[in-house]
Amino acid sequence: MNNDAPIGVFDSGIGGLTVAREIMRQIPNERIVYFGDTIRLPYGSKSKDNIIMCSRQIISFLQSQGVKAVVIACNTASALALEEMKQEFDMPIIGVVQPGAKMAAETTINGKIGLIATDSTIKSGVYERYIKGYRPDVTVYGKACPLLVPLVEEGMIHDTVTYEMVNRYLADLKDEKVDTLIMGCTHYPLLRSTFRQVMGEEVNLVNPAYETALELKNLLEQENLANIKEVDEPSIMYRFYVSDAAEKFKKLAQTILEFDVGMIKKINVDEL
Amino acid sequence: MNNDAPIGVFDSGIGGLTVAREIMRQIPNERIVYFGDTIRLPYGSKSKDNIIMCSRQIISFLQSQGVKAVVIACNTASALALEEMKQEFDMPIIGVVQPGAKMAAETTINGKIGLIATDSTIKSGVYERYIKGYRPDVTVYGKACPLLVPLVEEGMIHDTVTYEMVNRYLADLKDEKVDTLIMGCTHYPLLRSTFRQVMGEEVNLVNPAYETALELKNLLEQENLANIKEVDEPSIMYRFYVSDAAEKFKKLAQTILEFDVGMIKKINVDEL
């Protein structure tokens, strides 16, 4: 495998771009091929079988694009499909759940961790399992927040309605006095300031995207897969594919990544 | 074709059940096979090509279930795929847009019609085209309301957040003094009382589901396809299929239809 081969990153839509953004910041030498499965979005309410099928198709596609490693940049897919994908594919694959869980376990002082995520991620219990693997004595308070993804997708990041929903979703976690809150969906870091406002200054916000980029960096170095060549232009470094609605994706991607993402190519999922 | 063959009805999820409900009320003798394409939900932000592909697969499936006619119980799919489907399949197929457009054109007095719908339905311009076909002098004021579907799917039908969003979405239409409002998405009749509250008593609310059931009734009589046999039990009369998340569908379906919908069968869309 070439060291200058790209990293494959995928999500159901734009959320995984918060992970891609961290990879770009922390490992600026690495090329990225991003796939947003916008026609099958959202993943958060889908069944395990379907998430596994979608993940398998997308990783095969990324493999055909010559990637040297894959990041499942979606909490739901990481929670439901990571183990199966690691067994099926012969290349390094990491998800966002384990790095986030580890950081939360290391961060909490009072042993009370709040977890906000999609319905499927909460129901899977995967965060709790990993966290208890690091520290069996902590309690994890999970809360599904199904409306936050559509609110972010609508660009309502600073909006009274979003504040109201965050306030409702977080009420129980505040009552439980969690000292650490995992933003367990890749869309959520875009609402960081609202979580901060509702939870107060004392609560630690854990962004699994940040920890995942760090883990990827370590993994590439361990496996002698890191790219040592010069940094190219973003337009050459980063390629973006979606399964639908390329224009909408482009607009949101440019807001999140703050550079011109160039042409977004559309792939028909029936051909994956 | 047997007169006691069922009617095929499909939507991206639960929304089309408001259409199925009207068919059950107005033509209680007819059997129904319902398909909710929950794995590819929502349709409202998808491209025309994809909506056509999904519709083709589902109508083929309904055909394999022996239906005598199909109702596209989704405004987006009616707007983007009805004409193609009528050409491709040799059986009566109707959508929800034309019946709703006709009723709105007949109802308005001041010639100002408001249309609330998904982004794709608004952009298609199909409602306006049909309405102007009936009455060229009217003006149609369209407004996409992307958050109303997720709010309904979350069961937040009577909620201050939903009221706030409806209030925002309808503000321009109120300013334009529309005297008729088309609920141009099959989820929206579930929010009827909120629209009534925001728009006031004077505005006419058009429910395309009601008009569609009426058109279906007339069509079946014209084509000598109406079922004249005795009414059976709901459990025998109505069959429900989904492409994902059968349990969640069942729960919402029972709230909307107010009877025990029995077993919901899951179909893999890859096999359609």
SSE blueprint:
The structure is a homodimer of 272-residue chains.
Chain A: E1 7-11, H1 17-26, E2 32-36, H2 48-64, E3 69-72, H3 75-88, E4 93-95, H4 97-107, E5 112-117, H5 119-124, H6 126-134, E6 139-144, H7 148-153, H8 160-175, E7 180-183, H9 192-199, E8 204-206, H10 208-222, H11 234-237, E9 238-242, H12 246-257, E10 264-266
Parallel strand pairs in A: 1-2, 1-3, 2-9, 3-4, 5-6, 5-7, 7-8, 9-10
Describe this structure in words.
- The structure is a homodimer of 272-residue chains.
- Chain A is of the alpha/beta class and 272 residues long.
- Chain A folds into 2 domains: 7-95 and 210-271, 3-Layer(aba) Sandwich (Rossmann fold), CATH 3.40.50; 98-207, Rossmann fold.
- Chain A has 12 helices and 10 strands.
- In chain A, the strands form 2 sheets. In chain A, strands 4-3-1-2-9-10 form a 6-stranded parallel β-sheet, sandwiched between helices. A 4-stranded parallel β-sheet of chain A has the order 6-5-7-8, sandwiched between helices.
- In chain A, α1 (17-26) links the parallel β1 and β2 (32-36).
- In chain A, α2 packs across α3 and α4 (97-107) packs across α10 (208-222).
- Chain A is globular and about 50 Å long.
- Chain A starts with 6 loop residues before the first strand and ends in a 6-residue tail after the last strand.
- The model of chain A has no long low-confidence stretch (mean pLDDT 93).
- The A-B interface holds A 39-40, 45-47, 50, 53, 146-147, 150-151, 154, 160-161, 164-165, 244-245, 248, 270 and B 39-40, 45-47, 50, 53, 146-147, 150-151, 154, 160-161, 164-165, 244-245, 248, 270.
